[in-house]
Structures are given as C-alpha cells and as structure tokens.
Amino acid sequence: MPMEEGDVCFAHLRSKLQACLDRNCHLEKENKALRQEILHLKGQITKLQAQDADKSMIWKKQQNHINKNSPSQEKQLVQIDNVEEGLGVDNSLTRREIFCSAIKARSPRVPRPPPRPTTCLQLAPKLTGKESQLPSPLMPPPPPPLPSNLQRRSSNSLRKVPEVAESKLPPSPPPPPPPLPSKLQVRASSSVRRAPEVVEFYHSITRRDGKPETKTGIAGTQVTSNAREMIGEIENRSAYLLAIKSDVETQGEFINFLIKEVQNATYTEISDVEAFVKWLDEELSYLVDERAVLKHFPQWPEQKADAMREAAFGYRDLKNLGSEVSSFSDDMRQPTGVALKRIRALQEKLECSVHNLERVRDNASKRYKEFQIPWEWMLDTGIIAQLKSGSMRLAKKYMKRVITALQSYASSEDEELMLQGVRFAFRVHQFVGGFDEESRNAFQELRKLASSIYS
Prior knowledge:
Keywords: Coiled coil. This is Protein CHUP1, chloroplastic-like. The protein is mainly α. Among the domains are: about 1-105; about 195-215 and about 300-455, no CATH class. The protein contains 17 helices and no strands. It has helices spanning about 1-65, 70-85, 90-105, 120-125, 150, 160-170, 195-210, 225-235, 240-250, 250-265, 270-285, 290-295, 300-325, 335-370, 385-410, 415-430, 435-455. Helix 15 (about 385-410) packs parallel to helix 17 (about 435-455). The protein starts with a helix and ends with a helix.
C-alpha cells in the first residue's frame, strides 16, 4: 500500500510537470508569433511615417497659398486633411486618392500685373476717358497724310511732291528726351583730392614702429552638399512628382504670362528691376517647385531671369550697405577699443563688397547689356561713389574717436592708439583715392597730437 500511494503521487506530479512543459512550449510559440507581429507593425509604422512626411511636405507648400484660394477651396482642403488623418493603417490607397484629388483641386493662378517703371510714371501723366486713347507723349505724332490731289499726280510731277509736302507740313517735332539719369549716378565730389601728407606720415609712423599692417581676412562659408541631397531625396518621392505634374498641367497659362513679361522686360533704372524681380519671385512662389516646374517649359528665359535677379540682389545688397554706413553712429558710452573695432569691421565689409563688384563688373555689364538690364549703377560714378563717400565718413569718426581718447587721458598705449588711427586713415585714403576737406582737417589734428606723443 505505501508503494502504491507513492506511485500514484509520482504519477500525479509527472502529469502536472508535463502539463507545465506543454504550456511553456505553447507560450514560447505564442511569444514568437507576437514578436513577428511586432516587427510587421513596426514596418507598417515606418511606411506610414514616410507617407506622412510626403503629405506634410506638400501641404506646407499649399498652406503658403491657402490665403490666396477661395473660401470654398480652403474649406475643402481642411476637410480632406481631417478625413485623411482619421484613416487607418490599411487605407493607404484611399489616402493616396484623397491626396491626388487635393492636388488637382488647386485652381489656376491669376497673376497680378507687374509694377510699372518709375520713369514712365514720372513722364507720362495718367489719362482717363478719351485722353487715354491718344498716342503717348513720349513718341512723336505720325505725319499727316498727303492731300489726295497730290497723290493723283502723274509720275513726272511726283518729283516735286516732296518739296510741296515738306513746305506745307509743320516742322518735325524734336526727338524724345533721353531717359532721366539714375539718382545713383552722381559724380564724386570735386573736393576729394590726394593728400600726400597722409602717405608720408603713415610711412614715417610704420617705419618707426616696425609693425606692418596686417589685414584680417573674411572667412567664407563652406557650401555643403546637404541641400542637393535633400532635393534629390524629395524628387524621388511620388507625391512630390505628382504635385509637379499637377502644376505643369494646370498652371500653363499663368507660366506663359510670366514668360512674356520676362522676355519683354526693359528698364532704365535698376530700382525698377529690383521691383520687377520681387514681383516675379512672389508670383513663382505659388508653384510647388519653381525650378522643377519651369523645366517643362523650354521657352522660359532662364538666363535673363537669373541675370535680373543677380543685378537686383547685387544692387539691393550694396544699397543696404550704403544705408548701414550712412546711419552708423559712434556711441561714446562704449569703450574706445570696442568702438574702433566696430568701425574697422564695417570698413572691411564695405571694401570687400566694392572689390567684389569691381572684379565681376566687366563680365556682368556685358550680360546686362545683352538682356537690356541697367548696368550704369556699377560704374565708379554710381553707387560705388556713395560707398566711398561713406568710407570717408567712417574715417572721420575713427580719427575723432582716437583724438578724443588721446586728449582725455595719457597712458602707455597712446603710441599704439595713434598708430591705429594713422593706419586706418591711410587705408581709407588709398581706398577712396583722397580725402575731402573735413577728413584732411581731422587728419591734421591727429598729426598735431603725434608730435607730443613721439617727442
């Protein structure tokens, strides 16, 4: 009996152990299946994230123009976006169809008229009613027709007709006046002339000090290939290509209008080119990708449009730099070293811009002439004259700041401060090609202080 009870207990424990082993094996198989399902779900999540990235990239482009769409179209886009966000994992085909319909819903762009040239606005007054049908005052009126009796004469008397006609016709009007000169085309002031004393004193100071001037270079920015890699990645996406195709199909009339405007654009003032380029870029921003869409229009004048942008941006940068120099003020509350460093940095920026313009001026002016783009502003009598005048203004502020510091206190750094003032004055003198009366007076005052320092 005891052995039988032990066998029963052993058999019971064996059955329980076998049941636990079977359950453990079942759980392992279930765990393996769950892991595979998790990997499958992760793959679907990655796929959906890529699709959402495509959608968000295109919708960002469309939201830039959503204010220009009609209220009904705006409401439609919002509804489509809400429906799309509520779709599940297995509805990728439906998401794509809704996205395609949203792209096709963009209405053709109605372009705004380009800005009118300022010269035309000044010379041609506004005409209304019947006066607007009259010929432009800029063009001479056509000569009146010959009398009918003169036209019926025989060929023998035709030789005398010109004399009779010329005697009866009024004198021909004078040719139209030439275009108004640009406001930037101002000649340098006649008061600017060479100052040999600046060169002589500079050489004497630098020989005594033995420290040649070292110019600090401007570090250039390194252009990486990240932008191109991003563009290449975007172009490989179907949603992006679909948006490009939609713009090519629906915006053809709008693009053809821009093509004619660029081809016919002719201006005499660079400020008008700047306004035209601003208008053109605002219109082209309606497209999903300007470059990609315009590739499908071979008649697009790409070289002229790029040349106009180059001229407009170059003029704008120089104009802004001139405004920065003319509005510069020396804050006497700042330490002398900080103030002089600010002036030197602005002078370096000014010299770099002028030298870059002079370096590309010959080639750029040829291209601008070819495309009928104003180029006279690039000459020495144009905006460069204003920048050099601003450089003399910086030199006067620099010398006055040095003079004020030398007169206020005496220290062991007086010689170094005097040396900085003379070097900067010489630098500007060579850059501008001379000094005006105020700059010469400031330099003479600086030179008088040097006698007490080096005595």
